[in-house]
UniProtKB/TrEMBL annotation, chains A, B:
Belongs to the DSD1 family. The keyword Amino-acid biosynthesis does not apply. Keywords: Lyase. The keyword Acetylation does not apply. This is D-serine deaminase, pyridoxal phosphate-dependent. Pfam families: Ala_racemase_N, D-ser_dehydrat. It comes from the Bacteria. Residues 244-335 form the D-serine dehydratase-like domain.
Amino acid sequence: MLSIDDLDTPAILIDVDRAEANIARAQAHADRHGLKLRPHIKTHKLPYWAKKQIAAGAVGITCQKIGEAEVMADAGLTDIFLPYNILGRAKLERLKALHGRVTVSVTSDSMETLAGLAATFTDPGQPLQVLVECDTGMGRCGVQSASEAVALAREIDKARGLAFGGLMTYPAAGRAAEAEAWLADARQALAASGLACQRISSGGTPDMWRASEASVVTEYRPGTYIYLDRYQVAKGVGSLDDCALTVLSTVVSHPTSTRAILDAGSKALSSDTLGLPDFGELLGVPGATVTGLSEEHGNVTLSGDAKLRIGERVRIVPDHCCVVSNLFDEVHLIAGERVLETLPVAARGRMG
Amino acid sequence: MLSIDDLDTPAILIDVDRAEANIARAQAHADRHGLKLRPHIKTHKLPYWAKKQIAAGAVGITCQKIGEAEVMADAGLTDIFLPYNILGRAKLERLKALHGRVTVSVTSDSMETLAGLAATFTDPGQPLQVLVECDTGMGRCGVQSASEAVALAREIDKARGLAFGGLMTYPAAGRAAEAEAWLADARQALAASGLACQRISSGGTPDMWRASEASVVTEYRPGTYIYLDRYQVAKGVGSLDDCALTVLSTVVSHPTSTRAILDAGSKALSSDTLGLPDFGELLGVPGATVTGLSEEHGNVTLSGDAKLRIGERVRIVPDHCCVVSNLFDEVHLIAGERVLETLPVAARGRMG
């Protein structure tokens, strides 16, 4: 069997035991709180893990792009949520084809998006579930008020080939309570208009752990929880020992006593730090931090007793694991030092 | 013939006339200054443009990864510079195979890297050209002093299957004069040791335009000059009208009067701003700037009279075009609104 030592660098390693423990821990938490789990596949982009998440008890999966959903449907996943405004003839036709073979739901935050959906989906026998996206503080997509949510929900309800599926939000980080209040108001306004709101979907790994039984949220879409990363560790979701994804890299240069250069740059680790002050941490080398990136080089600053040598291979915990998954064509599943399997990142780079 | 309107979004558009004008302009500049041009393919990752660059007068190309060089060699490119420390058996064997079929040169900044090269390349009849990488102020790879450069050059000269190829640097942005002085000193120290330095290679698009006849630099490795981007425009290399690469995107949401959301997020534009305060600019929509990115959403802030509508398609000039090329599997070559050809980004995502 292959060992990590046989792999060329840079490469993504996924510790299977850790990922499975992370799946189990989140599912147990959701079960305890009566919350349905609908994991976001953006983090792994792999049918392998999507199936494991379903097997552990998830009600379905979340994809962000139709191309991702098509890959997942091809692999046998049957319940897919696309929390996105799908616009334009090409995408609407693909969405219709997808809806013909698996259970799909989408979101909308405008009459324009609804118009396209209503024109495409016209069969009352198999209506498309449409949730209203709500901006509960994140400042991205979403209606701005409960009354706007009601207006859209009414339009969905009127369209013969659509069905009002509920509310969806991506809450601002750390502001779950604010989102909760917003959604509770909107649910009440919907009820006053005679519209039942059976599904309220929220997301974001860190805030999942704060969800309680009293929440109006019925379903959660965590993504990063399966692998975790330095950002999640900084948010207290787990420790470095829970991080399942690492980037294997080689020290290619050591120009000064405090500077070493890795063969993993922004093309491997991405420039997305999620606000952290640096780009990654080297496992087992305390005092070694990735403090700079160019496309093909990672600058490591060594402090204290930290030592590296040219040719040495190291494992980096990145700041944001989801964007790293998107940069590699394949990942290696590992158990300890053994490489169990190498998988293509099937849903990587799906743009449309 | 396809038009831009037929493409799904997000998508990369390359304006062929602009790219060809940028190639011609740089080649003319290099010719005027007696400088050899060896374009870095990292920006486009396409054999199509590499061949155009050679046809315009470039002496060869620059790749950063063996995987990129293999793609280019397969496509018929015959003179490839890999300014990187190649380490480890797997990569050295691939380098040897590559050297067997095209002209390859590499760099080294350490005895460790040299040891691997010397053990792999042993044929004095077909020596591998090795240049010494010099840290002239960038603070990345490279020897720290002229005496270190001489010591490495001596080792290369002694190895039977290697040949000392000269000096290579990637200068710190805007500090070309400093790099110039460093390299002149090193060249003199090499001459004093009886080592001729026939090739001195430098890089970086903005500083190329400052190179003069008096420079010690014999060869230049610009990358971004072919497409340009907002960073290059900020550096004065050209105007927005010279930028050949744009990202076609759809407005998917317009939650408030000053906020619109695009279907191009960090997965399409990358989080790499090269220090600019925002993430991209919308062509033909003055006052519309991409001020935030999540993976699949771009937040546009509208100021003044800037207007967008849901479903509208826009073209974004990104901050850093090279990293955008790496995120897409294909690019569309355009002339005006016409799509001339769609090409796979053949050297995209080559990690090793």
